[in-house]
Automatic annotation (TrEMBL):
<dbReference type="GO" id="GO:0005615">
    <property type="term" value="C:extracellular space"/>
</dbReference>
<dbReference type="Pfam" id="PF07654">
    <property type="entry name" value="C1-set"/>
</dbReference>
<keyword id="KW-0325">Glycoprotein</keyword>
<keyword id="KW-0472">Membrane</keyword>
<dbReference type="Pfam" id="PF00129">
    <property type="entry name" value="MHC_I"/>
</dbReference>
<dbReference type="InterPro" id="IPR013783">
    <property type="entry name" value="Ig-like_fold"/>
</dbReference>
<dbReference type="InterPro" id="IPR011162">
    <property type="entry name" value="MHC_I/II-like_Ag-recog"/>
</dbReference>
<feature type="transmembrane region" description="Helical">
    <location>
        <begin position="320"/>
        <end position="344"/>
    </location>
</feature>
<keyword id="KW-0812">Transmembrane</keyword>
<keyword id="KW-1133">Transmembrane helix</keyword>
<dbReference type="GO" id="GO:0006955">
    <property type="term" value="P:immune response"/>
</dbReference>
<dbReference type="GO" id="GO:0009897">
    <property type="term" value="C:external side of plasma membrane"/>
</dbReference>
<dbReference type="InterPro" id="IPR050208">
    <property type="entry name" value="MHC_class-I_related"/>
</dbReference>
<feature type="domain" description="Ig-like">
    <location>
        <begin position="217"/>
        <end position="309"/>
    </location>
</feature>
<dbReference type="InterPro" id="IPR037055">
    <property type="entry name" value="MHC_I-like_Ag-recog_sf"/>
</dbReference>
<dbReference type="InterPro" id="IPR011161">
    <property type="entry name" value="MHC_I-like_Ag-recog"/>
</dbReference>
<dbReference type="InterPro" id="IPR007110">
    <property type="entry name" value="Ig-like_dom"/>
</dbReference>
Amino acid sequence: MGPQRKIQGLDKSDAIAERETECVRERANVREKDRVRPKEIEPARENHFLRYEFTAFFKPSTFTAFKAVGVCDHRQIAHYSNDERVWIRSSVNNWINAPEAPPGSRDWFLHQLNSLSNCTDSQRFEPHVLQRVIGCELEKSPEGTVSLRAFDEYGFDGEDFMFFNSETQQWIDKNLKAKETKMKWDQQTGHNEHLHHYLKTCMNWISSFNNTKKNSPVVRVFARKAPDDHSKLNLICLATGFYPRDIEMNIRLDESVLVNQTSSGIRPNDDGSFQMRTSVKIDANHNGIYDCLVKHSNLTQAQPIKTVYHQILSAESQQWSLIMGIKVTAAVVIFLLLIGYCIYRKIQML
């Protein structure tokens, strides 16, 4: 008896099995594209700042506008009233001991704008804008290293203009238009000494800044149906009640960060704390364990907040699958009965 031939049916089965394996591999690759490899957890840095911001707009023969505000850690703590010609502090107790507004009155600032406008605009009909930011900032690393910086910077017509070097008490020009102004301001030694003292006071205050509202975030994770795609869910991570402001949030699957996340940005709460919301679309029919990893300066490296969301098929989805399975089975049975009845009729007619 000769050698047996390979049955063609087995070849088809092998091909089908191989194709199914490829499909599974392709689906896995698609899911892998939605992830970012896990990174080592790094504690968040702590940042604080105090700055006063000035803006003046001048248009010859029309009007002059002036606005000034004081901001500490993204919260407005003071503003200048043009009607009363005074600074008005807010009632936030945490910054009540912050340094007052810097030297240089509203009239002095507008005079500088007028002088610069006359020097740069020979025909004197173009509008001009003068801006100033003065203050100090502190950055504290997770290891405890503290970095301090003081600044007094000017911008003119949307370009960097000059900044003050507090150590040398000299002005540094950053624009060709600032050469003449730099020479004039360098000669104002009394004003520069006063400015140097103010920036030093600012740094002393920010370095001892001890805000009583240091709070860890409260985190929760929930899901909602995507309005534009019923096969998707919007998985949402909400952190609220935290202070200081800086925070980092990531939604993960199997400890891998998911891509295409949407963030609300950090927003203030009424009590002076902050909140942030991050969301991402996930497959409603995919079983998996998701988590929201939150890093904040009040949390240690060993204890980040990790809130878990376990995605399983809903009872509604399971019930729908069962109903569809019963319907398909019933249709097959009816089809087979019809075929059997037709065959029976043909046999009876013979």
